[in-house]
Amino acid sequence: MVHSSITLLPAIMRGSFGVMDYYLMDAASLLPVLALGLQPGDTVLDLCAAPGGKTLALLQTGCCRNLAANDLSTSRTGRLQNVLHSYVPEDIRNKSRVRVTSWDGRKWGELEGDTYDRVLVDVPCTTDRHSLHEEENNIFQRSRKKERQKLPMLQVQLLAAGLLATKPGGYVMYSTCSLSHLQNEYVVQGAIELLANQYNIEVRVEDLTPFRKLFMDTFFFFPSCQVGELVIPNLMANFGPMYFCKMCRLT
């Protein structure tokens, strides 16, 4: 059984290379980065990068020629900067030409259209595990009902912007840590329709079945996703939830 308690882990300390020795995150959070399939020399955009776990994973592939890490919130990008300085050696940060910005991700297609080989769009969502265990900043609070109802539209806008920022032939990974179909498959389908209707851009959803089979002994996957893959927590594999869907921009 995989336990959820982290109290037995050693304290995070600075190691011999001058950076912190480990970063704690849900193992399922690595799947969108791995499935994105970075190749050496790729230009990469992490559109909603804070707090920075997936950004670190992108850098660990060693494939990023340029990495743009963005988040709308300046406080969150401040935390992202701290994570990068704490966990990534300076020479690696310089080699990968990491650029941290606080722009409105919904406008990225206008700012840097047709630019990136790989784009990760890990959108704001209901963060279901956090919302189950924490009252502070819980999006299911009655006072945040309107914000919660607007999430799918925001997610469609962010995914569409990520697709527009991708070069034709490039790949986009959409991900959430939600169980909601409205935030997962419906967002993917909505963004694809938006690009087809408004920009005459064709997008293909990639089949992740071979990728899923590599990890079926570690994670429990929901068997009936219309598109993409969804990791569901259970007692024997307490990871997720994590939804991810890979797309290729064809035109």
TrEMBL record:
Domain of life, source organism: Eukaryota
Gene3D superfamilies: Vaccinia Virus protein VP39
InterPro entries named in the record: MeTrfase_RsmB-F_NOP2_cat, MeTrfase_RsmB-F_NOP2_dom, RCMT, SAM-dependent_MTases_sf
GO cellular component: mitochondrial large ribosomal subunit
Statement: the UniProt record of this protein carries the keyword Thylakoid: no
Residues the record lists as binding S-adenosyl-L-methionine: C48, A49, A50, P51, G52, G53, K54, D71, D104, D122
Main localization category: mitochondrion
Domain SAM-dependent MTase RsmB/NOP-type: 1-250
GO biological process entries: rRNA methylation
Protein name per Swiss-Prot or TrEMBL: 5-cytosine rRNA methyltransferase NSUN4
Native source species: Pipistrellus kuhlii
